[in-house]
Amino acid sequence: MGFSVQGKTAIVTGAGRGIGLAIAQHFVQAGANVMFVDNDEESLERQMSDYDTENGPVRYFTGNICEKLCSANLLSATLDAFERVDILVNAHRFVKGSDPLDTDPSVLEEMLRQNMISGLRLSQMIAKRMIKQAEGQADVQQAGAIVNISNLAASRPVPDLLGYSIACAAQEQSTRGLALALAPHRIRVNGVRFSSVMSHELKCALKEDADLRDQIVSGTPLGRIAAADEVAEAVHYLVSEGARFVTGQVMTVDGGRCLADPVTAQAL
Fold first, then answer.
1. What is the structure's pLDDT at 187?
2. Among 116, 138, 210, 231, which is most buried by a count of CB atoms within 10 Å?
3. For the chain, which domains are there?
4. Is 90 exceeded by the pLDDT of residue 184?
5. CA 114 – CA 182 distance, rounded (Å)
6. Each residue of 55-72: pLDDT tens digit?
7. By percentage, how much of the chain surpasses pLDDT 90?
8. By C-alpha distance, which of 126, 153, 132 is closest to 263?
9. Number of H helices, E strands in the chain
10. Cα(79)–Cα(81) distance, rounded to whole angstroms?
11. Residue 263's pLDDT band (boundaries 50, 70, 90)?
12. Is the model's pLDDT at 49 over the cut of 80?
């Protein structure tokens, strides 16, 4: 079966920068049609300068996917451009600190809405389209693939990011639940959990803390910080036919850091 995504259509949220951008760019290089999605219009438009967004395999959509109507418009825009959708990657993340002993309920609600509920709603919407596309195609092993991007905070609680940790754990549970629900429809749902990856947030943290890089590297068995594209490669595997018997799993991409090093808010 191989690992090709040539000609497939992928929607990638959080594609304005960091890991989401790396995933979207990786898919373009692999020959897929890609809808870049982000709520930061300026950042997204800046990334689009290298692409033909009129006639090429790339389109972009700006909007707040926490809003149900926005998600519906995203799906419509993707179908207008490419006529189908085969892959969804929920890479949008929102991180905000909170007092573990006095967490503002609005912060927790925002973390859940941004990091879990929006992706779950979009996954449900896209899955219905995937099911419709696969009608009458009994010989097709894979009707679609969904990947949720999570964080090591899901299993290694970070007190100063209590709301974010809870949201990441909820997202991973939604990955498992959707995997079971969608398996009869030949749609696979998996996750990728990262930690010591050169994300936008980590770059900002490294600028503020001169010693943080050495702390992360010394606590990572593979002895370095991963590039965002290494997360993209893991996602590529999970959406490909090469992973056609893999569903409901959360792959950890952190160089073995979860095995050896305490997690801190600055290192996520």
1. 98
2. 231
3. 9-196+227-255 (3.40.50.720)
4. yes
5. 23
6. 999 999 999 999 999 999
7. 74
8. 153
9. 10, 7
10. 5
11. low
12. yes
Band (99; pLDDT cuts 50, 70, 90): confident
Beta bridge partners of 146: 88, 189
Specify the pairing of strand 87-90 against strand 144-151: parallel
Classify 19 in phi/psi space as left (phi over 0), alpha (psi -120 to 50) or beta.
alpha
Alpha-carbon distance of 137 to 135, in angstroms, equals: 6
If you search the block for the tokens 């010989």, which residue do you land on? Answer: 139
The mean pLDDT of 179-198, rounded to a whole number, is 95
| Residue 104 token pair | 């503002």
pTM to 2 decimals?
Answer: 0.94
Structure tokens at 34: 């890609």
Q: Classify the phi-psi angles of 245: left when phi > 0, otherwise alpha if psi is within -120 to 50, otherwise beta.
A: alpha
**Got the DSSP string for 135-189?**
TT-TT-S-SEEEEEEEEGGGTS--GGGHHHHHHHHHHHHHHHHHHHHHGGGTEEE
Q: Which residue has the tokens 């993209």?
A: 232
Q: Which residues contact 89 (CB under 8 A, 6 or more apart)?
A: 10, 11, 12, 13, 20, 23, 24, 146, 147, 148, 149, 235, 239
Q: How confident is the model at residue 268 (pLDDT cuts 50, 70, 90)?
A: low
With CA atoms as reference, report the closest residue to 168 among 135, 213, 119.
119
Distance between terminal CA atoms of the chain? Answer: 35
